[in-house]
TrEMBL record, chain A:
The keyword Cytoplasm does not apply. The keyword Membrane applies. Its main location: membrane. It is a multi-pass membrane protein. It is found in: Cell membrane. It holds the Pfam family BPD_transp_2. This is Xylose transport system permease protein XylH. InterPro entries: ABC_transp_permease. Part of the binding-protein-dependent transport system for D-xylose. Probably responsible for the translocation of the substrate across the membrane. Keywords: Cell inner membrane, Cell membrane, Membrane, Sugar transport, Transmembrane, Transmembrane helix, Transport. The chain crosses the membrane at residues 40-63, 69-92, 122-142, 149-169, 189-212, 233-250, 256-274, 305-326, 338-356, 363-380, 386-405.
UniProtKB/TrEMBL annotation, chain B:
This is ATP-binding cassette domain-containing protein. It comes from the Bacteria. PROSITE patterns: ABC_TRANSPORTER_2 (PS50893). It comes from Paracoccus albicereus. One of its GO terms (molecular function) is ATP binding. Residues 12-247 form the ABC transporter domain. The keyword Nucleotide-binding applies.
């Protein structure tokens, strides 16, 4: 602290009417205020995961076994990618109901081009992502040019893409992929080396502390109040301990799947894009008040277009991952509960259906919840009929929580 | 701050601007000149076409016919972005703020510093500096707009329009939601903006505010020009121009009051 503190107040501390929470106790007080006003953040996810772990491990101890959790992470990556795209469209207050079909179509294209026509994988995957981008482009065009509500446009897309998927797969209905291939090994076997997993587990905490130090120094230089290091260090400490424990626990089994690692890398990338770039800022602005964004000179149509393109591209990539996981492209790929799981994951993780609120991490956390439920129910040998009903109920609850939290935020003067 | 324009230089010239919404003619043959370093007040009754004219200049609506000359060149403002880029900033009556974003994000919306790695510190410093210039009472620039009062939102909106150092700034009812002190601040601010050599278009229903700061008062009535006056115009004359007759509800009301006062006076004598 420099001596000038006592002479002239910081640029942002000149107003005495605002309570400025400082230090750990302040941060805790701020957090409690936030939750009470309906800004739940990641809280529902942690409560959900805790409940799920208690209930399912009581019913079947295998649930918490390291190797079961490893399998869960393998399963989570594919749906997680799709949920990551959903976050983008939800941020704008739009929706994409065809993500399941898009992922199914993507796995069919992978099967046809790679196994059927013998294209190299390095060409197949870009081609699949390009297909996704084109589908997103069409949705964006329909939304922008014809003001077609996105749920109608993507609902018709759901059927059209499913039709294309069935057409591509032909009468046989499924294409098997060679087990020895890199893609299938990636989807079923490949595990990150232990040292790398531990290293990755340390990165978030390090980034938090480093980022906070850098921000503090910059704010200090600009005569703004600095937040102090106690909160970031505490945050980083808890996070690093939790991640290290998680990695250690998974290492008791097979370890951390590469597929999941790649997914987390993409989540981190999208998080940066949403929080720290002009594009991300524009996404939140359009989702919050499209007319205000337009008048600020933001090209709302282009932002919308980009969201649909990102969403469908991620869904296509998720389809490739799903095909790798199942080692086949079938007529069933992407049908059933894939759509709902991906949307529910994004909403459970804290991305609002009403637009303007959310984060990339919500896809990661939400998909863990959804996959834990699905995995737990499978371990109990419940039929898919029951699983569908339960997943449906979970989505309904997530939306109700979102709705109530939104109402509470409005009455507490938070967006 | 750039001051590339001499006071008195013609910035904007509208000739014969007409805007139709279907069968409704909102503006007809509007003529308007805006010079650097002057405050032009745009007054008129509800439905006179003030807001439509603002939206035409802000690029929200395109005129049906008519010509707009900007800095001596024929110009079209085909999108809000274009108008902003050319140096016409607008504070709309509905403010057009994103409630889910904080004050800094709203101020810099569409013009963020460093698009690929937002420079939050620099933006926050500029935000505080600007708000301090306006003597604004904003408790925290890191709170979402949803938590601010109406007056604070108005201040944020005005601050935002000044961020890009525009040539012309349009204020649509800027003082309608403000308290006494803040109104005075905004009027001071308008004069400061004018003295820096910008053209200011002020739309207001508040005749006192208008006469306090305007160099010229342009009256619109039913979508047409209905006279241009200087700030010395009397209240009655202005109301007459706005309502289109010296015999109007305002003057009748005033006369009635006078009459009552006379009667009371007579009764007392």
């Amino acid at each position: 602290m420099s001596p000038s503190d006592n002479i002239e107040p910081r640029l942002d501390r000149a107003d005495s009417r605002v309570r400025h929470d400082a230090g750990l106790a302040g941060a805790l007080r701020g957090f409690i205020d936030q939750v009470r006003s309906g800004d739940l953040g990641m809280l529902p996810v942690f409560v959900g995961l805790l409940l799920i772990s208690i209930v399912f491990s009581a019913l079947n101890p295998v649930f918490l076994a390291p190797n079961n959790l490893v399998n869960l992470l393998f399963d989570a990556a594919a749906v997680g990618f799709i949920a990551l795209g959903v976050v983008c469209v939800l941020l704008l207050g739009e929706i994409d109901l065809s993500i399941g079909s898009m992922s199914g179509l993507a796995s069919a294209i992978t099967g046809v081009l790679w196994v059927g026509s013998g294209w190299p994988l390095l060409l197949v995957i870009p081609a699949v992502i390009l297909t996704g981008a084109i589908v997103g482009l069409i949705y964006g065009f329909l939304r922008n040019q014809f003001e077609m509500p996105s749920f109608v446009a993507t609902l018709s897309g759901l059927l059209a893409l499913l039709g294309l998927q069935l057409y591509l797969l032909g009468p046989t209905g499924s294409i098997n992929m060679p087990f020895s291939s890199a893609l299938v090994r990636f989807g079923q076997i490949l595990i990150m080396p232990a040292w790398l997993s531990y290293l990755v587990a340390i990165i978030p905490g390090t980034l938090i502390v480093w980022g906070a130090r850098r921000a503090d120094a910059q704010r200090e230089a600009a005569n703004l109040s600095s937040t102090g290091m106690s909160v970031p260090i505490a945050k980083a400490g808890v996070l690093t301990a939790a991640l290290l424990f998680a990695v250690w626990y998974l290492e008791q089994g097979r370890g951390v799947p590469w597929m999941f690692g790649v997914f987390v890398a993409f989540v981190a990338g999208l998080d940066y894009a949403l929080r720290r770039t002009k594009w991300g800022r524009s996404m939140f602005a359009v989702g919050g008040n499209a007319e205000a964004a337009r008048r600020s000179g933001i090209n709302v149509r282009r932002i919308r277009m980009s969201a649909f393109i990102v969403c469908s591209s991620f869904a296509a990539l998720g389809g490739v991952f799903a095909a790798a996981r199942l080692a086949s492209a079938s007529q069933q790929a992407g049908t059933g509960d894939v759509n709902l799981n991906a949307i529910a994951a994004a909403v459970i993780g804290g991305t609002s259906l009403f637009g303007g609120r959310g984060s990339a991490w919500s896809a990661l956390l939400g998909v863990l919840v959804i996959m834990a439920i699905s995995n737990g129910l499978t371990l109990l040998n419940l039929s898919s009929s029951l699983r569908y009903m339960i997943t449906g109920a979970v989505l309904a609850i997530a939306v109700i929580v979102d709705s109530l939290a939104r109402r509470s935020r409005a009455s507490h003067g938070r967006a | 701050m750039t001051r590339s324009h001499q006071p008195g230089e013609l910035l904007l010239r509208l000739r014969g601007v007409t805007k139709q919404f279907g069968a409704v003619t909102a503006l007809q043959d509007i003529e308007l000149d805006i010079h650097a370093g002057e405050v032009v007040a745009l007054v008129g009754d509800n439905g006179a076409g003030k807001s439509t004219l603002v939206k035409v200049l802000a690029g929200v609506h395109q005129p049906t016919t008519g010509t707009i000359e900007y800095l001596g060149q024929p110009a079209t403002f085909d999108s809000p972005g274009k108008a902003l880029e050319m140096g016409i900033a607008t504070v709309f009556q509905d403010l057009a703020l994103c409630e889910n974003l904080d004050v800094v994000a709203n101020l810099f919306l569409g013009h963020e510093v460093n698009p690929w790695a937002l420079d939050e510190v620099q933006m926050e410093v500029r935000a505080w500096t600007l708000l301090r210039e306006l003597a604004a009472r904003i408790p925290s620039v890191r709170e979402p707009i949803a938590s601010l009062s109406g007056g604070q939102r108005q201040t944020v909106a005005i601050a935002r329009s000044l961020l890009l150092d525009p040539k012309i700034i349009m204020l649509d009812e800027p003082t309608a939601a403000l308290g006494v002190a803040q109104t005075a601040e905004v009027l001071n601010l308008i004069e400061r903006v004018r003295d820096r050599g910008h053209g200011v278009i002020l739309i207001s229903h508040n005749m006192e505010d208008v006469r306090a700061v305007a160099d010229r008062i342009v009256v619109l009535r039913l979508g047409r020009n209905n006279g241009t006056f200087n700030a010395n115009i009397s209240h009655q004359e202005l109301v007459a121009a706005i309502t289109g007759a010296s015999e109007n509800s305002v003057s009748r009301r005033a006369a009635r009051k006078l009459e009552t006062a006379d009667q009371i006076g007579e009764a007392l004598q």
